[in-house]
Each structure stands twice: as C-alpha cells, then as structure tokens.
Amino acid sequence: MDEAKLNDFMGKLVSDMGGAAMLANMIVGEELGLYRAMADSLFVSPETLATRTGCNARLLREWLSAHAASGYMEHQDGQFRLPEEQALALAVEDSPVYVAGGAVVVAALFHDKDKLLAAMRGDGALAWGDHHPCMFSGTERFFRPGYRAHLVAEWLPALEGVVDKLRAGAKVADIGCGHGASTVIMAQAFPASRFFGFDYHAPSVATARQRAADAGLAGQAEFAQASAKNYPGDGYDLICYFDCLHDMGDPVGAARHSFQALKDDGSVLLVEPFANDHLDQNLNPVGRLFYAASTFICTPNSLSQEVGLGLGAQAGEARLREVFGEAGFSQFRRAAQTPFNLILEARK
C-alpha cells in the first residue's frame, strides 16, 4: 500500500464531505435570504445580519464561520464579508454565474436516495415526475441564468438564418420546456414570433403558463402537456431542446418527430451538457458533476420510458450526431459552446 496515496485520497474525501455539507449550508443561506442580505459586499457582524434577516445570531455565526473556512466569505475581527465575485454566484439571480439554484438540485438527490436505491436494484427506472419537488424548481433556477446570458446573445445567432426568421415572425417549439424559462426568454426577445412549449410533466406545464402570464406573454407563448414524440403542429421554423434530449427514453424517435414537424428549411437547436466523446476526456470537474447528476436524474429517467436508450448527460457530440442521423437529418454541427453546454444545430 502506498501511504502517501492513501493520505491524498483521504484528504480528497474530507474535502468532498465538507463540500457536500457546504451545499446544505448554501441552501439555508439561499432560502433565508442571507446571501442577498450580504450582497453589498460590506463586512457585517452575525448580530447585525440577524437583525437584517430575523435569524438566530448564534447559528448565523456558525454558518458564517463555515463560509469563511470554505473560502466563500472573508473574515476580519468577528465580522464577515461576501465579496462581489461570490455575491454574483450566490446572491444575484440575474447574474450569468448564479449557481445557488444548483444546490437545490443536489438537495433533491438526497431526498430521492431511497428511490435511486430501488432503481439500482431493479430496472434502473426513476421517472422525472417522481423526484422531490425541489428538483423542478432547482433545475429551472440552475439553468435560467445561462439561458439569459447566452441564448439570445450567442446561441440563436450561431444558427444559420434563424435570428432573421425570428425577427420576421417564426413558429417555434420548445420541447421539454419545463417551467418555460427558455421559452419566455425567446418570446420576450422576438415579439413577432409564436412560441409553443411542450412537456410531459403536467405540474411544470402549469408553472410555465403562469411564468408566461406574469411576463405578459400569454398570447405569444403557449404551453401544453405532450411528449417529445407526439406534440402537435407542423411547419415549425425552429424546434429547441434545452438540456433534455439525453433524458428521453427514445431520443431518436423524438428527433424523427422533429424532422417531420419542421419546415424544409427549418432548424433544430440542441443544447446539451458539455461533454467530450470519451469517458477519459471527461474526467474533470464538469464531467464529475454531470456524471453524478446523470446517475440520479438523466439516465434513470430515460430508463423509465419506452426504448430506454439511456444516453446520459455525457453522451457527447458524436453520439448525438448518430441520433439525429438515424432520425433522417443530413446536417449536424457544433454551433457554439460554453464550459457547461454544447450548442448543436441539426437541419434536414
């Protein structure tokens, strides 16, 4: 046995356990508004923060100390400060780097632990709708900042001729729309176009309708419960899949339905978690996060549906190209990318 190697691994385990404990503390801070109360990036005592938030000062001191020990906050003479950079990630929901919503997704993994144990011992199936409710709200809040930052400014312009169509008035389908974050963002940017969001999870469809109504888009963005293989309509100029195709049991069937529903000159926008084509190329922090999430969410959801292809969150561009080629598409390319997403375009 290599004792140095053992010690290095034990250090990693302790670090990971501390990180997991900090995610729980992050959820507490997010739900109680503690980060927002410190978003001015000024030093504050636990007692002052308690007055601002109505929370217990002694517990706040422990919570703040955990953040200082983790490098999330600065400490000086009994006072604590959330630096501007950390505030962008933890306190400012409109920030493109806001990630606190992701901690809520992680919370759902622990809530659903027993369900995953049953899936592991059985057929591998755990349907999206059977997750803890915080999975749905956390997923929206985790992905929405990236959509706000990149979708209209970068991803849509990277597609061939799509922005001009949207400005003139296009028909768009958003498949697996969830709470409608991506649909609403596009509808707000392109008022001449019509947007139709489809999701098989009825509670998410209801939330999406409310989001559109709140944004004054009820007549421009419509939502309905439907699967990726049977949503209604044809003649779409653009069909979008935002971080959902790999979760589907039959992604080839979904892509084939899109092929039939598109105009001849239409486009598919496929946004998927960033991945290289081979496991050894994904042994990095992003791959670690997405493989771990895929174990609980993406792959068991696929296995719960017909076909159960089980692409997983790290399918990679080459495997996704195969899916769309099998569905009949002749053109497939990487249009853009971020550290967290591949942005792919498919055409007939």
From TrEMBL:
<dbReference type="Pfam" id="PF21320">
    <property type="entry name" value="WHD_Rv2258c"/>
</dbReference>
<dbReference type="Pfam" id="PF13847">
    <property type="entry name" value="Methyltransf_31"/>
</dbReference>
<dbReference type="InterPro" id="IPR053173">
    <property type="entry name" value="SAM-binding_MTase"/>
</dbReference>
<dbReference type="InterPro" id="IPR036388">
    <property type="entry name" value="WH-like_DNA-bd_sf"/>
</dbReference>
<keyword id="KW-0489">Methyltransferase</keyword>
<protein>
    <submittedName>
        <fullName>SAM-dependent methyltransferase PhcB</fullName>
        <ecNumber>2.1.1.33</ecNumber>
    </submittedName>
</protein>
<feature type="domain" description="S-adenosylmethionine-dependent methyltransferase Rv2258c-like winged HTH">
    <location>
        <begin position="26"/>
        <end position="90"/>
    </location>
</feature>
<dbReference type="InterPro" id="IPR048711">
    <property type="entry name" value="WHD_Rv2258c"/>
</dbReference>
<dbReference type="InterPro" id="IPR029063">
    <property type="entry name" value="SAM-dependent_MTases_sf"/>
</dbReference>
<dbReference type="InterPro" id="IPR025714">
    <property type="entry name" value="Methyltranfer_dom"/>
</dbReference>
<keyword id="KW-0808">Transferase</keyword>
<feature type="domain" description="Methyltransferase">
    <location>
        <begin position="168"/>
        <end position="282"/>
    </location>
</feature>
<dbReference type="GO" id="GO:0008176">
    <property type="term" value="F:tRNA (guanine(46)-N7)-methyltransferase activity"/>
</dbReference>
